[in-house]
Amino acid sequence: MAREKKFSTEDIYQEAHSLLMAVGYDKFSFGLLANSLSVSRAAIYKYYTNKDELIYDYMISEMEKMVDDLEKLDWSTDYPAQFQQLFALIFEYGDVHQISFMIPNKQIADDEKMKEKKQRSQLLHKRFFQQIQSFIQTGQTNGYIKKDIPKSIIIELIFHSVTIPDRVGLSQSERAYYLQEIICQGIFEK
Asked: CB–CB of 143/79 below 8 Å?
């Protein structure tokens, strides 16, 4: 009998990320994941009981990194520079946002482990959202952002900008730059 190929949780996360971006949530399966990792499905079941458990663990891991990176931004700079850093960070984790939009908001069964994962995921989303909301409020209070635009619309615009398909082949940093320019300055010449 052949020995099972060794792989790590990080290998599973990287491959799950690639597959979710390529085929979406509905078509993602442990069979596809096993083929991509060149292992048996049974090897993956040693780590996770189902795809939702895997995806929640992956998303929690990525959101923890994102929140940590948010807290490490240089908040001592002026507001426009802070906005630029924040926008770049959101684009850096753009795939994570896209994957989170894919996951159906279904009721988790009575599995306590999955309920805890869903709660942890929701807490991380809430923490990140509250920091962004506070940042927008500061911009409005200090006259950088128009006060008559609801914070929720600004936040949605920023987060949904990462889901705009790239049909012209711009790099991630170029897309982030142009979308940030449109959000901050508009499209009309002054």
From this structure: no
Helix axes 51-71 and 112-141, enclosed angle (nearest 10): 30
**Total-model pTM:** 0.85
Interaxial angle between packed helices 172-185 and 79-92, expressed in degrees from 0 to 180 and rounded to the nearest 10:
140
Phi-psi region of 24 (alpha: psi -120 to 50; beta: other; left: phi over 0): left
Q: Phi/psi at 186 (nearest 5 deg)?
A: 80, -170
| Interatomic CA distance for residues 160 and 157, integer angstroms | 5
Give residues with Cβ within 8 angstroms of 164, minimum separation 6: 175, 179
188 DSSP 8-state letter: S
pLDDT band of residue 45 (cuts 50, 70, 90) is very high
Averaged confidence pLDDT in the chain = 90
Residue 63 backbone phi and psi in degrees, to 5 = -70, -35
pLDDT over 60 at 2, yes or no: no
Q: What tens digit of pLDDT does each residue of 51-93 get? A: 999 999 999 999 999 999 999 998 888 999 999 999 999 999 9
Cβ atoms 140, 151 nearer than 8 A: yes
